[in-house]
Design a protein that fits this description.
- It is a single chain.
- With 316 residues, this protein is α/β, with parallel strands linked by helices.
- The chain has one domain: Alpha/Beta hydrolase fold, catalytic domain (Rossmann fold, 3-Layer(aba) Sandwich), CATH 3.40.50.
- The chain is built from 13 helices and ten strands.
- α2 links the parallel β3 and β4.
- It is globular and about 50 Å long.
């Protein structure tokens, strides 16, 4: 989409987001904040249609190179909950974030989530994280246990489990220069959809509104996307494997005091439940819902997953 006016591109994203939210019966309000690092972060608030008494807001965190739109079917299935969906820096309509290869990702995650909770005067929140969002949620639950009521991991939490072995695409995107070049290519929406199939599971988005793919594709064509996301891949992995201190060791997982629900597809491209079970088992009292599907389990078994997530988060 080379040559597209940036303001027009962003307007198209917002229009598609509004249509998607309306489809799921939710109203969206956009907020912006600045972190202690000086990063510009966009948060989209979905107020509860009918507030659930005494339950904290949900902070929703998408995966790397992804967008909140992918999780809108789950957002729509939680109408009684106030949801704050974060466009991670460098993603969606947030500002750029180019990280150094040896960046402290834990400090980075804490700075963003601290800023989000402070901006909305939130003392405790439920965290729902997909992929990298789940990894950052683990970091936050360990560092700020008093601020996390409950935690839901949707799919393998990025590179957060020590059993993760980066797929070839992740290794390639971590190569300096190459990752930015690949992510910066002007691709068609059809090509973007094919890539989503590889990451989320073949046919995972079949039958869902087309705006989900449209929003993800448009966001990937923004000028900030390629350098920001490539830098995140470099901070996570090298062409040879996951960087030290990125995964959460079993002994740290054993310190998590927050109740955890993990929803895991049996064919998750990043890490399947059989291989990652040692990390899951290290989390005290964690509950597992295994579904037939790939990296976005709420798309594969929507009713079952939404019911489980809703019931888990409704427990005080």
């Amino acid at each position: 989409m080379a040559g597209t006016d940036p303001e027009l591109l962003d307007a198209r994203i917002r229009a598609a987001e509004a249509a998607l939210a309306a489809h799921y019966g939710r109203t969206a309000f956009e907020h912006r904040l600045r972190t202690a690092e000086g990063l510009d972060v966009r948060v989209v608030e979905f107020p509860a249609a009918e507030a659930a008494a005494d339950l904290p807001p949900i902070v929703l965190l998408h995966g790397i190179a992804s967008v909140t739109a992918v999780a809108m079917p789950l957002v729509g299935a939680l109408p009684t909950r106030r949801i704050l969906a974060v466009d991670w820096p460098g993603h969606g309509l947030s500002g750029p974030s180019v990280l150094a290869p040896h960046s402290d990702l834990r400090a980075h995650a804490l700075s963003v989530l601290d800023a989000v909770l402070a901006r909305f005067s939130i003392e405790r929140a439920d965290l729902v994280g997909h992929s990298l969002g789940g990894q950052f949620s683990l970091y936050f639950a360990l560092a700020r246990p008093e601020k996390v009521h409950r935690l839901v991991l949707l799919g393998a939490p990025g590179a957060g489990f020590v059993e993760v072995r980066p797929v070839v695409a992740m290794r390639a995107l971590a190569v300096p220069g190459l990752g930015t070049a690949i992510l910066g290519l002007s691709t068609s929406q059809a090509a973007y959809a094919r890539n989503s199939d590889r990451l989320l599971g073949k046919g995972a988005l079949n039958g869902y509104p087309g705006e989900i793919i449209e929003i993800g594709h448009l966001a990937s064509q923004r000028s900030d996307f390629a350098p920001s996301v490539a830098s995140m891949f470099r901070a996570l992995v090298t062409p040879f494997g996951v960087r030290p201190r990125v995964p959460v060791p079993h002994q740290e997982l054993a310190r998590i005091a927050t109740p955890v629900l993990m929803v895991w597809g049996d064919d998750d491209v990043l890490l399947d439940p059989a291989k990652g079970r040692p990390s899951f088992d290290a989390i005290p009292g964690a509950r597992l819902l295994e579904v037939k599907g790939g990296g976005a389990p709420w798309l594969d078994e929507p009713d079952r997953v939404a019911g489980a997530v809703s019931a888990f988060l409704a427990t005080r």
